[in-house]
Specification:
nine-stranded antiparallel beta sheet; UbiD C-terminal domain-like; binds flavin mononucleotide; Pnp Oxidase, Chain A; 454 residues; 13 helices; five-stranded mixed beta sheet; 27% helix; binds manganese (II) ion
Length: 454
């Protein structure tokens, strides 16, 4: 396995760029660890060296800013969104390796997950400890097509687990397909993952598309995989810990209150039960966690991946689309900004409708011109003040299918809103509010080149 694909090398990189803070004081995985992560939301990654009740350290807040993600992916100055767009265009198939350190220690038989892993309990009214950074690998029981995604796994005592999977997610479809064949669904859960793996797990691909190929695209080389010991699945060889077992969509467990990215508790009702029958890990494994609810890393992982797949689709259909940004205030899921270059009349509205059609989550989509920075909420608001005419540029569509996570959904429907804040094709004439007031370009160029002298 190339060492740079290992989570270990990611921790080293965090250290070398000054982005790792080591917490040496003993920390309780029950509420206290999550509280520290929450108060250091966008700060350095936090490595908890002394977690009460476990010899295994815990790391969190690893991918909590766009700049951090770019640095960990080794993108010198290439923008993150360009790297993702290229990955989606140039998938690379994974390769198998014979051996990986993640299988150095093996637990089989009578497993007590709580004894092996320092799994945090985050919030007061949640039902227990959750593995939140576990990338779940599963295969279609008929076609064998692979799927790679995250769903939070709650420890239910011993080797028993519960996974709360949204109905429309591929993992759930695979579990239901297995169930219809009278089978359970084998799963492998990789913990301690390279940023490319975590981002890849969040891409909205088609059912049957292998997320590993896009992860290879992001890495610019094949992702190295190792075969699991007890299930016919392959996991990233650079991971720290792997859980092997199965889930059964006919085996229901009431989840009770669980936190969701809007920051609230929700009760989704019954979730999927299962069992972990084998745990393997590196000799000195580090347990990675992602603070759930309205937290920087949780929101950003979805945002960065969703905006990439939206941009890929939109730009193919409407070439004037230059960028899609899924915003932090929109919880990294619900609000998008589409940047366009001089759209033709009505093209902005068409982009809004396409984006909403593609991504169920989007309910407020703002279109701006590419002369402003779509990542900057102040410039987006400036566009609304300067270019948005409420009477003509507003789209309101009540009663559209909503995502289950939307805090305002009514019977799983919601009102979708589009705001088109772009110039008009006939704009550009003086006084038409699209030409910026500035000094002659020759003067600007001279001053820019010699600014230090002033
Ligand atoms: C930290 C984190 C936790 C997540 N937890 C869940 C979860 O518990 N249930 C779920 O359905 N999706 C969860 N997701 C979202 C899915 O991983 C994501 O939508 C993924 O693209 C689904 O992929 P799939 O359709 O291939 O299964 C989580 C995402 C992140 C970043
Ligand atoms: Mn998928």
């Amino acid at each position: 396995m190339p060492e740079h694909q290992s989570f270990r090398s990611v921790v080293e990189r965090l250290k070398s760029i000054g982005a790792l803070h080591e917490v040496t004081r003993p920390v309780d995985p029950r509420f206290e660890l999550g509280a520290v992560l929450s108060m250091r939301d966008k700060g350095q990654a936090q490595l908890f060296a002394a977690v009460k009740g476990s010899a295994m350290p815990v790391i969190g807040n690893v991918m909590n800013t766009r700049a951090r993600i770019a640095a960990l992916l080794g993108l010198d100055r290439k923008p993150l969104h360009d790297a993702l767009t290229e990955a989606l265009q140039r998938p690379v198939k994974p390769v198998m390796v014979d051996h990986a350190p993640l299988q150095d220690v093996v637990h089989e038989g009578d497993i007590d997950l709580e004894q092996i892993l320092p799994v945090p309990t985050f919030f007061e009214h949640e039902g227990g400890a959750y593995v939140t950074a576990g990338v779940i690998i599963a295969k279609d029981p008929v076609s064998g097509a692979r799927n790679v995604s995250i769903a939070r796994i709650r420890l239910e005592g011993g080797k028993r687990i519960m996974v709360g999977i949204a109905r429309n997610h591929h993992l759930n479809m695979l579990a239901e397909k297995a169930r219809s064949l009278g089978q359970v669904l084998p799963i492998a859960v990789a913990i301690g993952n390279h940023p490319a793996v975590l981002l890849g797990s969040q891409l909205y691909l088609g059912l049957g598309d292998d997320e590993y190929d896009m992860i290879g695209g992001l890495l610019g080389e094949p992702l190295a995989l190792v075969a699991c010991r007890s299930v016919p699945l392959e996991v990233p060889a650079g991971a720290e810990i792997v859980l092997e077992g199965h889930i059964d969509s006919g085996d229901l467990i009431e989840e009770g209150d669980v936190s969701e990215f809007p920051g609230f508790y929700v009760n989704y009702g019954p979730a999927t039960g299962g069992f972990i029958t084998c745990v393997t890990h590196r000799r000195d494994a580090i347990f990675q966690t992602i603070l759930p609810a309205y937290a920087a890393e949780h929101c950003l992982l979805g945002a960065v991946a969703i905006e990439a797949v939206t941009f890929q689709m939109l730009s193919r259909i409407i070439p004037s689309v230059r960028r899609v940004v899924v915003t932090e205030g929109g919880m990294g899921r619900l609000h998008a900004v589409i940047s366009m270059h001089r759209p033709r009349l009505g093209e902005g509205k068409r982009a809004v409708l396409l984006a909403m059609g593609q991504i169920n989550l989007f309910k407020l989509v703002t279109v701006v011109e590419d002369d402003i920075d779509p990542e900057d909420p102040v410039q987006v608001e400036w566009s609304l003040a300067a270019r948005f005419r409420g009477g003509e540029d507003l789209i309101v569509i009540p009663g559209v299918k909503a995502d289950r996570c939307d805090p305002l959904h009514d019977n799983l429907t919601v009102t979708k809103i589009g705001l088109v804040a772009t110039t008009r094709p006939d704009d550009g004439k003086r006084g038409s509010r699209s030409e910026f007031a500035r000094a002659p370009e020759a003067v600007l160029a001279r001053v820019r080149a010699n600014l230090e002298d002033y």
